[in-house]
Write a structure and sequence with these properties.
The chain is α+β, with helices and mostly antiparallel strands. It has two domains: about 170 residues, no CATH class; about 80 residues, no CATH class. It is built from eleven helices and eight strands. The strands form three sheets. The protein has a three-stranded antiparallel β-sheet. It has a three-stranded mixed β-sheet with strand order 6-8-7, covered by helices on one side. Strand 7 and strand 8 form a beta hairpin. The longest helix has 19 residues.
Amino acid sequence: MNATHPRGDLLAKLAEGISGLTDSTQWMRHLECQSRFHRYSFGNVILIAAQCPDASRVAGFKTWRALGRTVRKGEKAIWILAPMVAKRADGVDPTDDRVVRGFKYVPVFDLSQTEGEELPAACHKLSGDGPTDALARLTRVALLHGYSVEETELPDDVNGDCTFSLRRIRVESRNSSAQRVKTLAHEIAHALLHTDQPDRSVAELEAESVAYLVCQHLGLDTGAYTFGYVATWAGGGDQAVAAIRATGTNIQRTAHAMVDLLGARADEVSSEAA
């Protein structure tokens, strides 16, 4: 098959794009915004899920106001536990003069319960139409590897997922066709690479980088989404570039394999998937 493989210089272009993003004011605003959201304990995660199963990002009333958003009138608070910290009086540990005296319930609200300014984002969903027949061609690649593809509505702003045990890929049907093409390429990369990858940051870096190379081959530039996505998982600037170099062989090999199959005929798919 005479497929044109993704060139090695595309990885350099990806690294350059990430470096440019992470040097930008946009990236710094994104990091500042993210620093305002706490990492909640397991117990509080359970409490949040029980009260608001679809919660995606929660914060207190004042934090939302500082981010330019307000809680809509009539919204019901999500109650979590916060420690009550006091100064130690016993002098047991001079390096730590604080002690937890108990816990109290405090109200927080999910992003969906607020309105106002858009939060600074590193990733921007792709808009517009994807390349002609790209979704169909990528779907055939998935079928060749024994994975079904479903376009459906997914919760929590999820763009797609890959369930190895079911050999199923799902793609958010409400997204633009350009975004769906990018997402399907990403999820196929997971299917090919990550049945036994315990480090999610590596898995997301590899899958998104593969999607970037494959989509470039298809004539779709995904930089507006990919640069921020990879940087979010791999770290900004030099850290992300080093991570791409470390796993570059996996990325290139998987992208090449997908590109080779993009031209497969329907009868080839039928016979190999049977």
